[in-house]
Amino acid sequence: MSEQRPVVARVADVVVYAPLGLALEGRRLFPDLVDRGRRQVQFTRVVGKFAVRRGEERAQQAWSDAQGLVLGLLNVAGLRPEDDDPEAADPIPVDVDLEAVDAVDLHLVADPEPRADGGALAIPGYDSLSAFQVMPRLEGLGPDELEAVRDYERQTRGRQTILNKIAQLQAS
Fold first, then answer.
1. Which of 10, 52, 118, 145 could form a disulfide with 122 if both were Cys (CB 3.0 to 4.6 A apart)?
2. CA angle 107, 112, 114 (to 5 degrees)
3. CA neighbours within 13 Å on the CB side: how many for 45?
4. What is the tens place of the pLDDT at every residue in 89-107?
5. Are 154 and 163 contacting, i.e. CB atoms less than 8 angstroms apart?
6. Domain spans of the chain?
């Protein structure tokens, strides 16, 4: 066991001897202390940058997961028009400029030509079917019917999966 030193001796260590030792050794210790401080600050900056970058990656992943979940729920509920493939959808921008959106002329967005009627196609209920549902039905169509579906799809939704399948069937 270490022996207990009197209180006066401990106070003398703190008040007299430690400052005196620091004053005598300070010139020699100062460059080492500065170097250690610099290294600590550099290390802290590297760890901080890593933490920020990792946080940004996790936030972006969480945002992507949330988008996928919402788009999936919209698909299941049948509330997602004009797009059957959530993977092909453009991501929703996080930094939308609302003033620019308000400034869009609505006449530019309006459909200038009337769309064709899907009731005349060989696939009943075509407008209500997803691309996944249309694909197997294309194989049973003749050349004229395929061409009618191709023309209709180009004029309306323009789903590339369907257009590519029709091109593949027409080529064979």
1. 145
2. 140
3. 6
4. 455 455 555 455 444 444 4
5. yes
6. 115-171
